Amino acid sequence: MSDTKAEAAYKSLSSILTNTPPSSQNPASSLLYDPEISSQVSALLRHPNSGAGDDNLCRWLYDTFQSSDPQLQLVVVRFLPIIAGVYLSRVTLRKPLAGFEAVLLALYSHETTSRKGQSLTVNVPDLSHPSIYHESKAPPKNNATDLNLAVISPSLEPHGTVRSTRRARIAGVALELYYSKIPQMPVGSKIEFCEFCQAWAGQDGDMRKDGNGGDEVINQKEGISKEGRIPLPWELLQPVLRILGHCLLGSNKKNKELYEAACCASRSLYARSLHDINPNAILATGSLVRLAKMGLDSQNDQVDHTEVPWTRVISL
User: Fold this and answer.
1) CA gap 118, 151 in Å, rounded
2) For every residue of 86-98, which 3-state class applies, written as one string?
3) b/e sequence 138-155, b meaning 16+ C-beta within 10 Å
4) Which of 106, 101, 81 is nearest to 158 (CA)?
5) Which of 2, 142, 150, 202 is most buried per CB count within 10 Å?
6) How far is CA 226 from CA 45, 129, 197, 201, 270, in A?
7) Which helix (H) or strand (E) holds 215?
8) Pick from 237, 248, 243, 206: nearest CA to 88
């Protein structure tokens, strides 16, 4: 049944794109990883008139995600960086973007249903209690068993439309879904996300103060418009930073292009946070910048101190 849905989706997309490779034995995998298909879909999503209510590609993305097939849903999530990037950059132009909004609402609704509207939390250790790693000078509290819960993502409410007051939250939840699937995303999708992060940072991401008091110019990749600057509330910025953290420290760290794109995006967002004087954002983006610098330093130091040296001489 899954293969039948994938073949139908492949055939339907072939009628939208100008040229598609012959269908393989695994059409869902081709839709997700084939570079030619990805390039054509990306070009259509970036078209000046894309995202309208009658956009055939947006309709295909919506229908494909609603198929409830996990592999086909990954295909739609793969293009989320472009959908969210183009949508958030154009929304101030007051163009009709009902097609993009329908796809984002489908992703948001999926997350709302899967999480049953509940918030995402993590247990933060209480450092006032001693552990095997540290001693505490403060007297222990009576409520030693109480959990210190930190909310990563607040509870969700169902929404049928995208209003200006809900836009950042809906897009942020969609990016949370992207983050949960990021190990399965192609490298090209992650690079596109990093490029849009630079665009979202705007002109303030072009330059920042370095640690020595000088100015360090951030080279933006060609094709990234400075006109894409958008508001970055915490509900949108938090999943963005989590995705960038994966790009810097994840399994694809050895991919030089992705790593450099993530570094540039982190520096641009750090500069934007300094400009906005946003303490939470400054702390978070500054941490990413330091992680990026540590990664570059470790790449320059190729000595593996855990490797046992090989020698023919036996020392007694």
Assistant:
1) 11
2) HHHHHHHHCCCCH
3) eeeeeeeeeeeeeeebee
4) 106
5) 202
6) 19, 49, 11, 8, 16
7) strand 215-217
8) 237
Identify which has the larger pLDDT, 147 or 185.
185
Q: How many residues comprise the chain?
A: 316
Tokens of 42: 């990306």
> pLDDT for 92-122, tens place per residue?
888 889 999 999 999 999 999 999 888 888 8
Contact criterion met (CB below 8 Å) for 62 and 103: yes
Angstrom distance (rounded) from CA 285 to CA 280: 9
Read off the DSSP letter of residue 199.
H
Q: What is the pLDDT of residues 261-284, one digit of tens each?
A: 999 999 999 999 999 999 999 999
Distances (CA, A) of 157 to 87, 102, 105, 118, 151: 22, 17, 12, 9, 16
Using DSSP's 3-state secondary structure scheme, residue 224 falls into coil
Specify which residues 123 forms β-bridges with. Answer: 149
3-state secondary structure 248-316: HHCCCCCCHHHHHHHHHHHHHHHHHHHHHCCHHHHHHHHHHHHHHHHHHHHHHCCCCCCCCCCCCCCCC
CA distance 273 to 11: 45
Secondary structure (3-state) at 123: strand
**The pair of three-digit structure tokens given for residue 179, joined into one six-digit string:** 């983050």
More confident residue, 297 or 230: 230
Q: How far apart are CA 84 and CA 88, in angstroms?
A: 6
Residue 153 contacts residue 117 (beta carbons within 8 Å)? no
